[in-house]
Amino acid sequence: MFLRLATEKRLPLLSPFAAGIFTRGFSSIDRINTNLRPFPDYSPKKPGVKDVDLVRDLTTALKQRRSEPARRVLSPFGQRFRSDHLLWAFPHLRSDLPLVLSLIHWCRSRRHPIPAEALAIAAHLSVDSKHLQAARQFLREGLSHPRFVEQVIYTYKYWCSNPSVFDLLFRASVDAGRLAEARSLFFHLLTYGVIISTDSCNALLSRIPLHELLTVFTEFPESGFRWNVVSYNILIHRLCQIGKLEEARGFLRKMEDKDCVLPDVITYSTLIDGCCKSGELQEALELFSEMSIKGLKPNSFTYTSLITLSCGNNNVVEAERLFMEMLSYGVAPDAVVYTSLINGFSKKGNLFAMSRLFDEMKSSGHLPDAVTYTVLICGLCGSGKMLEANKMFVEMISKGLSPDEVTYSALIAGYCREGRMGDAFRLHNEMLHKGLLPNVVTYTTLCDGLCKQGQVEAGNELLHEMCRKGLVLNVVTFNSLINGLCKAGNIDQAVKTMIDMEAAGLCPDTYTYTTLMDAYCKSGDMDQARLLLKEMLDKGLQPNVVTFNVLMNGFCVLGMLEDGKTLLQWMLDKNIRPNATTYNTLMKQYSIDKNMKATSEIYKGMLALGIIPDENTYNILITGHCKSRNMKEACYYYNEMVSKGFNLRKSSYNALIKLLFRKKKLQEASRLFEEMRAMKLVADREIYSIFIDANYNEKNIKTILELCDEVVENCYVEEK
């Protein structure tokens, strides 16, 4: 709002802020004050005698018959009425805005043009009567007239003297998209001592391009104007939108240190969201901590940004911690938060957490949308739960939600993984029927599924269909076909497909070469596998640990253990870090050869590099030591394995139980046998014989019959 300063010189109107710093004697305002121009005196065109009579009769009729429609009251004056009469009528109706509005409405109905001066006066009268909506309408209409701003200024002193009319005029210019004119108006009004309100200037900030926004942000305060926290929030938001986070953080510091404007929860939430969208979780958490220190309570938007990024980074532990903190502060999570968390647990394959959050979401009154259902379906498909995924898909459609390409592609991928190509193509056809276009990922998934089923020709035909539909084949598509050909044993055709791939302008990648090398290794052709590795290196492609594991497996299967050890040393010399699978492959082959000394040496080398043994590592060690009758070592690795939460495989159970029995550890052997049965793992027939004999000696007829049933059900069925 604005103030009237009653001084000896009758200064024009100033905003409270401008008035305050004027009285404090700030030099910038003093300098402006010396050049302030007075508002002009209003001197309208004088009416003739006949015009005076007409206006008097017209306005008298309006006043006396105000309850009647203006159309009926003013009908006798229609033939003689001109636009000038409207201006001359205003002084008679000055204190009666409803009659002014009626008269203007009647003029419009008779298609009389409304002069710019009349619109300016009508706006003043509306402001004076606190009818701001009418004032905004007149000002917006007036802006279509040339020099309308000067008409508002010209009529101001006589008709209104309420400076909020200029605030409304400024907003009208902004709303009409006349942004350059609004900026000019700001400085023009300064010459009359009027400063536009911060709220109206904020409306300008939110509309102009960023480079202009930064200029305005600097220019306006030079005239004694001050930005508020909303102004800074607009600027910070715009900077964050284009990733200029450093500049945004700079303005956060400036608003406090230089302008004494305190940031609010929106300021910090905007910056946190910007950091999250740029993947800067640590910076976002630091701002979050700073925000809490200042006593600002995070809102739903703040938590949503942090939770979404944490889930995107597969850090669901941090996401859930933030979620629980959010609930403890009484901040209600929205559908986006629940969907983000479900997506995070979906990537981890945690179906229980997904289901729990989905139920919580619905019980909290948030309706799952298409994105939520798609996330759930993707998670279920990724975990192989196709029955549940299909139920969720049916539920989604029953709720009136439309699946998109992502939903269908997830289901198609799930069916392809299970080899249910009929269901996959049924959904593909359903997509087409609904007008959804399968993308290259969908077709690649179908092609890969066909190839894994041995239907390589059908996969190849699908690639041609993709080309006919204008889809550009990518490396993944060709890799799927090459993989299928290799699994079908057609290595020559796979190599030819790689040549076709290069002819199409696509470069084979590490996966392409690794797939072919794996096929050659499994066929026993290590020379060709080596040649592919050399070709790969010559092309500047970096082999990954999977590539070397493929070669390692090839060497070990063929009994070329020294070559395998040489490959491992070469990897270490080249700073290529092996993983547990690399070591497991070598250990397994030495273990099969009952060379547990070499197996142990490899295991120690693995630990020395800080590579963590996995479940397979322990099973190899336990089985190997059992077959070598190393009771102490087998039990040591078994205890260590259990302490780390790993499980024995069937072969490891069989080997350990046999060793325990041979070493007369009947109680331990019996405990492991019962544990194995509880896990639904089938023991060897030899082990069943051992325990049937032991129970026979104890005359446990019931247990003997149970074991006999299991032998018949499991062992003989397996043999068949």
TrEMBL record:
Keywords: Repeat. Transmembrane segments: none annotated. PPR repeats lie at residues 228-262, 264-298, 299-333, 334-368, 369-403, 404-438, 439-473, 474-508, 509-543, 544-578, 579-613, 614-648, 649-683. The keyword Cytoplasm does not apply. GO terms for biological process: chloroplast-nucleus signaling pathway; mitochondria-nucleus signaling pathway. Coiled coil: none annotated. GO terms for cellular component: chloroplast. InterPro entries: PPR_rpt, TPR-like_helical_dom_sf. Belongs to the PPR family. P subfamily. NCBIfam families: PPR. This is Pentatricopeptide repeat-containing protein. It comes from Dioscorea zingiberensis.
